[in-house]
Each structure stands twice: as C-alpha cells, then as structure tokens.
Design a protein that fits this description.
two-stranded antiparallel ribbon, single chain, alpha+beta, 76 residues
Length: 76
C-alpha cells in the first residue's frame, strides 16, 4: 500500500509542477480552485497573480461562447 501511495504522490507532484499539460482541480460547481504550473504559465497567471476568472473549462460540450457576447440576442 505504501508503494501505491508513493506512486500517487509522485504522480501528483509531476502533474502539479512539471507536466506540460493543463491540469486543473475543480470545485463541485466547476470553478477552478487549483491549477498546475504549466496552466499558470500558459494563461499568464504566474505573472499577474490573478485567479482563473477568464478561463473557461467545459467538459460537457454545452458551453456557448457566442451567448456571452454583447451583440448576440439572448433567448429565453
């Protein structure tokens, strides 16, 4: 069991600090609560210190970016 724990710990450490992939930990509401170093660099967050407020992660495939634009008519 210790070996499994070590593997999980080392894997998480790699994903968090070295992996060249976007790795996010999301809240139940789908908000990004943590991100790895690569995600910070790719979004410029590491330079600005900002939260991920302008990043959209959609695993459902239902996100409609055009619905957020001001020139798009809203449907009820």
């Amino acid at each position: 069991m210790t070996e499994d724990s070590d593997i999980h710990s080392e894997t998480f450490e790699y994903l968090s600090k070295q992996a060249p992939i976007l790795f996010f930990i999301l809240s139940k509401q789908g908000l990004i609560v943590e991100a790895n170093a690569y995600a910070d660099r790719m979004t410029g967050r590491v330079l600005s210190g900002e939260r991920f407020q302008d990043v959209v992660v959609d695993f459902t495939g239902k996100f409609d970016l055009s619905a957020l634009t001001s020139d798009h008519p809203k449907s009820d």
